[in-house]
């Protein structure tokens, strides 16, 4: 039996896949954490739900965020060589069907969190800003990187 969070993630993934591919039907595979889907060509694919859902969040950020370059400049400011933004791609604990991107700058200890709006929209203003020391422990596993243009790459 899947937890409520995994069911929401699976549902969100199905909605994203259906919108992107069209005609995708997702079914729960017998007792595992994988999702099987059948596309228009009748072939079944099995995918890792969590990593696919995180990649869908990153794709949404990369394709639907006009503000990503500004976020990258703040997140890499005051770093001399090889500026790096630490990034966590995940889901909001308050709104589990919405992607949440946490970005932190190791030089300034400044962190920002962005919550996905409807569809692929991302707010210009962060949902939260503050010290990286104040971040919830669930957002500290840095599972992605941010390029200088603001593009997120899931690791």
Word description of this protein:
This protein has 155 residues and is α+β, with helices and mostly antiparallel strands. The protein has 3 helices and 9 strands, in the order H-E-E-E-H-H-E-E-E-E-E-E. It has helices at 4-21, 49-64, 68-75; strands at 25-28, 34-38, 44-48, 85-91, 99-104, 110-115, 128-131, 144-146, 152-154. The strands form 2 sheets. A 6-stranded antiparallel sheet has the order 7-6-5-4-8-9. A 3-stranded antiparallel sheet has the order 1-2-3. A hairpin with a 5-residue loop joins strand 8 and strand 9. The two termini are 28 Å apart.
Outline of this structure?
The chain has helices at 4-21, 49-64, 68-75, and strands at residues 25-28, 34-38, 44-48, 85-91, 99-104, 110-115, 128-131, 144-146, 152-154.
Largest β sheet strand count, sense and barrel closure: 6 strands, antiparallel
Radius of gyration: 17 Å
Contiguous helical run count: 3
Query: What structural category characterises the helix and strand content?
Result: alpha+beta
Order of helices and strands: HEEEHHEEEEEE
Low-confidence stretches: 1-39
User: Which term fits the overall shape?
Assistant: globular
Q: Cα distance, first to last residue?
A: 28 Å
- Could you tell me the strand content as a percent range? 25-35%
**How are the strands of the largest sheet arranged?**
7-6-5-4-8-9
The average pLDDT is: 75
The total beta strand count reads: 9
The residue fraction in helices comes out at: 25-40%
